[in-house]
Amino acid sequence: MRVLSPYRAALALLLVLPLTGCLFRSRKVERTMSTAPLESATQQELIEYVNTQAGKIRTVQATVDIDTSVGGVKNGKVTDYQQIRGYVLARKPAMLRMIGLLPIVRNRAFDMVSDGQDFKLWIPPKNRFIVGRNDVETPNPQRPLENIRPQQIYDALLLREIDPEKEIAVMENDYEIVTDKKGHKVEQADYELQVIRKGEHGWFLWRKIIFSRTDLLPHRQLIYDENGNLATDARYEDYKDYNGVGFPSQTEIWRPQEEYDITLTVVKLQLNETLGDDKFTLEQPTGAEVVHLGQPQASAPPGSHAN
Question: What are the two backbone dihedrals, phi and then psi, of residue 89, each rounded to the nearest 5 degrees?
Fold first, then answer.
């Protein structure tokens, strides 16, 4: 009689056990999919939509409600600020001005302006006038709102054209989690345009523009730095038509590295009105504490506050 070696006996046992059903069980896996009717588009149609709509906007003049929060996992807490009224002015190719008003009294809480390269930020309640470059990061955990750069607002607010000479766009069919009419979380197909740009160190993923399949409108834009880090996560809601130009009524801008979130809700919007250079001029107030970001700071003048 032939005797199986211990190894062969163990192998035979492993092969037989699944047939007994004693050690294994199966379970049903289902995907909860959206039942909303979906529209279809080609890659070229999505690119043409982005470029056509972006090309129609030359200037933006908006009255907005501004909701701001700072903090997150890095900070260990989140601070929500009271909603304030504000104004946003933008003029292509890169000019932006944003003014926030204090609640009730409506004095200026802040006033910042940028030409795309340099920016100025005036904070009257702190008597601080801050000057710096948009591309120079100077994280300040003690004053988180001073980490805001006008260029970050501009890039999120105005969807840029896709330049075929400097960028490559590819389309991906993907899924996202949405909330249906009954309040349930379901999966829904979407389109994603991945925009790849040539940088100083080679090609890199610059943007992802995500289109809803229910209306074929961009409802999210992810912007990356050249190291592949997510720099801005912008979400767009409730598009309205302004003389043939679709523009979102609400734009939420989340900056994960600096951990601040700004939501701009449009109260009034005018597109393509003339905005002269004087609208983007911000003079240094007399007696203000001047801060040049990225440079060593002199001691604060007498009577100024540290926070």
Answer: -120, 130
